Amino acid sequence: MRIAIVGAGALGLYYGAMLQRAGNDVHFLLRSDYEAIKENGLQVFSVNGDFHLKKVQSYLAAQQIGEVDLVLIGLKTFANHKYNELVSPLLGRQTIILTLQNGLGNEETLAEHFGADRILGGVAFLCSNRGEPGAVHHLGEGRIIMGEFNSLDTSRAEKIAGLFCAAGVPCRAVQELKKARWEKLVWNIPFNGICALMRQPVDALLRHSGTRRLVIDIMEEVIAAANVQGIKEKIKMSLAQDMVQFSEGLGPYKPSMLIDRLESRPLELGAIFRVPLEAALQKGIKMPKVEELYALLDLGEAKSIA
Amino acid sequence: MRIAIVGAGALGLYYGAMLQRAGNDVHFLLRSDYEAIKENGLQVFSVNGDFHLKKVQSYLAAQQIGEVDLVLIGLKTFANHKYNELVSPLLGRQTIILTLQNGLGNEETLAEHFGADRILGGVAFLCSNRGEPGAVHHLGEGRIIMGEFNSLDTSRAEKIAGLFCAAGVPCRAVQELKKARWEKLVWNIPFNGICALMRQPVDALLRHSGTRRLVIDIMEEVIAAANVQGIKEKIKMSLAQDMVQFSEGLGPYKPSMLIDRLESRPLELGAIFRVPLEAALQKGIKMPKVEELYALLDLGEAKSIA
Q: Which of B171, B265, B246 is nearest to B206 (CA)?
């Protein structure tokens, strides 16, 4: 299968590398890593075993890639205004677009640009970081839950999921993409948000009784908002406790939003905070603690004194 | 009147200087400013006109001062465990203790140590900062509202208030000290809290629509909690809007808690957050946004990554 990777951060590089290693015809649209990968290939340091791809098809412009069967989007959501420039040249009539981006609103925007029927969404549970140029670190997890944006039929998603499974990435097709998206937000909103705001890793939040309680409070707000979004099978409130317990095992893990802030990049506040808050409000639900976290994070996008 | 100033930060130095200039017999219990003030006296830079006190009675231990008529306490509340050491040597049978400290719980702790009948509390609306050793900057305001801790009788408070008025400090005795304390918290909790957390001055919070809204939300939570504390005349919800409008005039003012954080001192979280949250909970009232701010500030007392 001819595949284009758009947005080759840690997530795009890792999944692209896995797909290429399994024999797919993968094309990477790169920016900062272009020179390093062109010269030395792509190095994956993984908890499942390191590997190196010597020859990587890398490009600086989508036009050089041309039409593909599958576009995998791993862009930071604050770059979504570039969809047209980066994705249009890759599309034929049958091309499928799979976005693995964070938060809400990405499928909707892609659908507006390129038509709803070709859009799949996937929720990636992946702990990974960029390394030196040309290297990516896979620290744990990696599974993907994916589904159609515009249909409850899972046959196409199953085909794509099979592609990932064959490449060693646990992947499952589901009818309710929306539920999976919200479940990920239950984790992302408190941990990405508080870690980024406080410049502290996951374990620091869990060690402190006040922020541990706050994480759970926020998770419960998000679950309550999720359950009025028209999903069929409700999310249980106990997911909050389960997720906190699971997160104990992550140790000093730095969520992507914390890394963005430490590296002075913009944060993905639209997809992870603004759109979910709007979706909740539209159903008459307030998330006061999420609202507060969003305001503080957004203020922090300006500069502080010290 | 023989007066001792305990806790000679900006507030203690300023009010002590005003009282001495008016002819009172003022004794300053000092620490960091001792050498500078002993040598060069005390310099007040004030919006109402600068002045210099050449001769200042300064001490490093309360025993050297001995018994006084009035003890004025301006300690940071995180130093309240030193009450015994710093205050006991100053007390005779008739000595009055006036605490001008921030937040809730100070009168209670003083009453436990030294008896409830001698305790007055005052709420100081003062914009001031320390300068170089031996100097204090009075940036604006300065009025005090004071009352008895253990009685609704205002006669003694009126006498002390008169002392301040005669020294050029607008001062008013009230029956309900508790109401005045909570009214100050309506301002202190959001502005001290968010400014310290975000390391940003007052005007930065008000310019950003998200944090401006958050300031008002938090003020409304505090007003709701105040109004179930058994105060006779309720605080109007419109105080929130009034205070925000007033605060526009403060420009890039740095509240004391922000200065504490910028200078890596501990924050007054007990008196300004923990005790008010407990008092609200005891009356069955939740302040979710205050709770969140407290958790984040308290986590921040640990070190951040970057």
A: B246
Residue B164 CA to residue B280 CA, distance in Å, equals 33
Contact call for A199 and B262, based on CB within 8 A? no
pLDDT, tens digit, for every residue of B273-290? 999 999 999 999 999 999
Q: Could you tell me whether strands B119-130 and B51-53 are parallel, antiparallel, or unpaired per DSSP bridges?
A: unpaired
CATH code, A110: 3.40.50.720
ipTM of the complex: 0.86
**Between B198, B262, B302, which is nearest A299 by CB?**
B198
Instruction: Give kind and range of the element (H or E) at residue A139.
Output: strand A135-148
B182 & B151 share domain: no
Count of domains observed in chain B: 2
For B134, counting Cβ atoms within 10 Å of its Cβ (0-12 exposed, 13-18 middle, 19+ buried), the class is buried
- Residue A171 sits in the same domain as residue A215: no
Q: Do B295 and A201 touch (CB under 8 A)?
A: no
Give the separation between CA A236 and CA A233, rounded to whole angstroms: 9
Chain-chain contact of B208 with A293 (C-beta, under 8 angstroms) = no
Q: For the domain that residue A272 is a member of, what is the CATH number?
A: 1.10.1040.10
The answer to whether B289 contacts A292, with C-beta atoms less than 8 Å apart, is yes
* Dihedral Cα B122, B124, B128, B131, nearest 10 deg: 0
Task: Indicate which of A199, A221, A261, A292 best probes the interface with B, i.e. most B CBs within 10 Å of its own CB.
Answer: A292
Domain that holds residue A229: 178-305
Question: Which residues of B make CB contacts under 8 Å with A?
Answer: 194, 197-201, 204-205, 208, 210-211, 213-214, 217, 262, 288-289, 291-296, 298-300, 302, 304-306
CB-closest option in A208, A293, A305 to B298: A208
Whose CA is closest to B178, among B105, B127, B111, B116?
B105
Phi, psi (rounded to 5 degrees) for B175: -75, -40
Nearest to residue A303, comparing CAs of A269, A275, A242, A261? Answer: A261
Output the six-digit token pair for B145. 């509202």
Residue of chain A whose Cα is closest to the Cα of B296: A211
CA–CA separation, A187 and A222 (whole Å): 9
Distance CA A29, CA A59 (A): 5
CA distances (Å), origin B290, targets A61, A216, B232: 49, 16, 24
A302 — pLDDT class (breaks 50, 70, 90): confident
Q: Distance between CA A149 and CA B224 in Å, rounded?
A: 44
pLDDT in tens, A49-74: 999 999 999 999 999 999 999 999 99
CA distances from B223 to A32, B218, B286 (A): 52, 9, 12
Distance between CA atoms of B238 and B218, rounded to whole angstroms?
Answer: 13
Measured from the Cβ of residue B219, the count of other Cβ atoms closer than 10 Å reads 26
pTM for the complete prediction?
A: 0.89
For residue A72, how many C-alpha atoms fall within 13 Å in the half-sphere facing its CB? 33
Confidence bin at B306 (pLDDT 50/70/90): very low
**Residue B141 to residue A189: CA distance in whole angstroms:** 41
